[in-house]
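Checked the freezer inventory, then went back to the computational side. Two predictions to log before the end of the day. The first one is the construct we discussed on Monday; recording sequence and tokens without edits.
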Amino acid sequence: MGRSPCCEKAHTNKGAWTKEEDDRLIAHIKAHGEGCWRSLPKAAGLLRCGKSCRLRWINYLRPDLKRGNFTEEEDDLIIKLHSLLGNKGSLIAGRLPG
């Protein structure tokens, strides 16, 4: 009786994103901002579900997303936060830049 999975609709792409899909998602979010993820795919002309678009944006496409190794300052901050918060990775990550 619960919700149906988001990407089991007909005509919905699954798997790897193409460069064109990434470009469409980026352009739509730049023009309209982050908003209703459920209606975004149709408005942006994507054959993806809203959840897939949200996760792609948050985990791969955000301009402020930091890639690469941690700096010494970030390492020190992680150690300090770990001593305060313990093994709470999501809380620690929420306090790090990018």
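The second is the one RB wanted added to the comparison set:
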Amino acid sequence: MLRSNLKSIEIIRRLDKHIDLGNAEKIDSGSVGDMLFDSCEKIDSLEIMVLTHITCPILKKQTIFDMVDVLRTSKKAMSIHSVQQVQCLVWLKKGNESIPINFCTD
């Protein structure tokens, strides 16, 4: 485990096999789920694990703390996932043609 500047947080480094997965030719050689399960073996079952993604760079520190509080106090919540609502029409341009991605033109 790596040290962090926050006393109550420990950083768990991914195993090389999960880092190499992104460069592998065979996508079925592993998954994010495998990485998560391997990481969970390194922590106590009562600890809370926060897994963030590069695709969520605007996640605020306070949002993470709020989510951890929900996990600690809720009797129903076992996990939390951040999402952002997109209300824009998305098109994919292929050559001179534009194809709708998230809606139907019928």
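For RB: The mean pLDDT is 77. The radius of gyration is 19 Å. Let me know if you want it refolded.
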